[in-house]
Amino acid sequence: MPFRHMLIRLVVFVAVSHLFFSAHAGEQTDIVLGQSAPLSGSFSEMGETYRDGAQIYFEKINKEGGVNGRRIRLITLDDGYDAKRAQVNTKELIEQHQALALFGHMFTNTVFASLPLATAAGVPYVGPYAGNETLYAGPVNHILFMTRASYSTELDALLRHVQAMGLTRVALARYDSPGGAILQKDLEEKLKAIKLAPVGVATMQLNSTQPADVVLKIIKMHPQAILLGVSGDDAVAFVRQFNQSADKFPVQFLARSLIGGHQLVVKLGSESRGIVISQVAPSPFNGETHIAREYQAALKAANAAGRKLVASYIGFDGYIAAKVMVEGLRRAGPNPGRPALVKALETMHHWDAGDFIVDYDENNHTGSKFVTVTVIGAGGHYIE
């Protein structure tokens, strides 16, 4: 055989071998998930807690050998709850980091800003910490998979509690934002259905650490109950300012799960007692559900390794979302692409995550409708 032909065959053999071994090596690379979350600003504690709740589940799975032999790597970029930063982060996660899926993006404005990018790119968008009704209503977005009940479903539960207490004068403190306006409209419609009307609405800006004007406006309405449509440090500042007002009077504070109950307990102390909060997961504290016991064990293992994490509802939400994500990855096979992951998630019909049901199919990406109502009791303990 002429030397030139032998050389050509050798080059072809080396190239084919490289492609073969590269392909098989690629099957063992990490599964990259991308998250944009507020790791700075008023919602930083909530962003870190949701991420950490998910991360301890991913770490647990990695220690057990990964998903179909592959480790999970979660890349979290800080958006400070800024919509434009969330868009930049999402593009980076999709284009530079080649994330198989986006996981755990947080809050309404940033989710609304980033979801269209994921939809256009066909990237699965799983477990966002958001609950605006538009994410649930209308035609199914084929790449969006929710893991928590909607804010509207939470509001229904809170208003049933208001009725049970015999309260009729309800005021709303909300953000001056599209999400805040949607909350106001939803509240007004639900109150009208039970033959009530809000006594008034006051709006505040994000990062309002001194909301004295908003508090004064609310006080002049003389409500029996105040629905807090603000979260994180903003909610802490509002409650503290209300309690410091010379004109304050007994009032029932109510809030949806996104307020960040743990943050209220830690920063308000005894002032948080009596606040009513709807939750979209069973208790992470009492161990009555299998998934809560799993969560507690994972926390214990993480803290034994040097972490300093405490049980919380938002951390538990992150843990549940991560478990859903992993089950979808398992069903997608050893080397899944994005369309395969979408199809795999849609096979999770009435899937039991551990006394917590998640339900998807091709026409339903809602995931869960679970809602319960809790009250912060003495010592920061939650009463259901």
Please, could you describe this protein's structure?
The structure is a single chain. The chain is of the alpha/beta class and 384 residues long. Helices cover 45% and strands 16% of the residues. The chain has a seven-stranded mixed β-sheet, with helices on both faces. It has a five-stranded parallel β-sheet with strand order 2-1-3-4-5, with helices on both faces. Strand 14 (372-376) and strand 15 form a beta hairpin. Helix 5 packs across helix 6 (178-193) and helix 11 packs across helix 12.
Tell me briefly what this model is.
With 384 residues, the chain is an alpha/beta fold.
Question: Which key features would you list for this structure?
Answer:
globular, 2 domains, 16% strand, alpha/beta, disordered N terminus, Rossmann fold, 384 residues
